[in-house]
Amino acid sequence: MSKIGSQDILYYIDAILKYSNYGKAAKSLYISQPYLTQVIKRVESQLNCELITRNKLPYRLTEQGKIYYQYLTSLENNYAKLLREISDVSDIDKTVIKIGVLPSLGTYLLPLFLPDFLGMNPNCRIELTEVLPEKSERLTQNNELDFWIGQNSRNISPNLNSVNWGRHRYRAVIPRCCDLYQKDVAIIPEGSIDISKILCQRLVLTSKGSAIRKQIDQLLNVYKVEPIIIMESTEINTILKLATGNLGLTIIPESVYVKECPSDYNIYPIPIDELSLDYFIAYHNERTLTSMDNDLINAFLTHGQNQFDIGD
Questions:
Q1: What's the first-to-final CA gap in the chain, in angstroms?
Q2: d(C-alpha 133, C-alpha 91), whole Å
Q3: Are 168 and 255 in contact (CB under 8 A)?
Q4: pLDDT higher for 268 or 108?
Q5: Distance (Å, whole) CA 230 – CA 250
Q6: What is the dihedral of CA 107, 108, 109, 112, to 10 degrees?
Q7: Sign, Cα dihedral of 268, 271, 274, 276
Q8: Share of the chain above pLDDT 70, in %
Q9: 173 with 198: CB under 8 angstroms?
Q10: What Gene3D superfamilies does this protein's entry cite (predicted)?
Q11: How far is CA 212 from the centre of its chain?
């Protein structure tokens, strides 16, 4: 087998498939094209098969290439597992708490309470799993995660316990391209726009599977609106940037900071009785909470309630 590391070969194959061009792939990898070509040909020679189809665009893995790619991936996964196990042994005196969270949600929730919690518990190590809510929920149910941080606790599985911050508002960001836009108005008064009219605008939304999207889809169904969805993203900051950039209207939690800019867009606080969310931390109902677990939950609640005094 090639002496080139499996991770390097994975990078090489990924780059070739991405660009469908050896020259561009080599440039992105900061290596020469002849070297890249030589490495792939050497591996193909050793395996006595073609890994990548080059006779048409875009480049694709051959059936043999798929098997080899899976093999390399399994090597990397096993190596990563080995490092984690060694780390766990090295940190034998540390308690590991595994937390699942949506990346965009973790961006603004975790900094509110984790630093203080870890300051009080220096013997704790946090392992984050940043995935969609459905996966975090499943992993928590299977005891593969200790805690799951999310939003809208009323929708979670009954075999999970949760504590939350209470109800919080959403806001609509209404750019100039929308007929609801009001010139030179920073914040449109709450309750002055019918929610069905908001749903009928050109929309920029979070992807299917996110808690926000589930609520919006429910509203679309209730009001029987066929949405005009211009773009979707898993990142809430991306949809915010697209909305403020005049692509379409978006709906975001009030906890996400939006700078007022009435010449480009309005901010409309949606009445809490029409659309609301809560932030929660959940755990399996058979889990026996330790003092460290309780510290984590209390830090989450304390810092959350201090940060957002909304909807009371």
A1: 65
A2: 29
A3: yes
A4: 268
A5: 10
A6: 120
A7: positive
A8: 93
A9: no
A10: 3.40.190.290, Winged helix-like DNA-binding domain superfamily/Winged helix DNA-binding domain
A11: 12
Type of residue found at 197: K
Place of tokens 């209404």: 174
Name the pTM for this structure.
0.57
Cα separation values, 160 from 146, 289, 301, Å: 11, 13, 17
Residues with Cβ within 8 Å of residue 97, at least 6 apart in sequence: 124, 125, 126, 127, 146, 147, 292, 293, 296
DSSP the chain: --SS-HHHHHHHHHHHHHHS-HHHHHHHHTS-HHHHHHHHHHHHHHHTS--EE-SSSSPEE-HHHHHHHHHHHHHHHHHHHHHHHHHHHHTTTSEEEEEEE-HHHHHHHHHHHHHHHHHH-TTEEEEEEE--HHHHHHHHHTTS-SEEEEE-GGGS-TTEEEEE---EEEEEEEETTSTT--TT-SBPPTTSS-HHHHHTSEEEEEPTTSHHHHHHHHHHHHTT---EEEEEES-HHHHHHHHHTTS-BEEEETTS-----TTTEEEEEPPTTTSEE-EEEEEETT----HHHHHHHHHHHHHHHHH-----
CA distance 67 to 63: 7
* Dist. CA 178–CA 56, nearest whole Å: 43
* Domain architecture of the chain: domains with CATH: 6-88 (1.10.10.10), 93-166+278-307 (3.40.190.10), 169-276 (3.40.190.290)
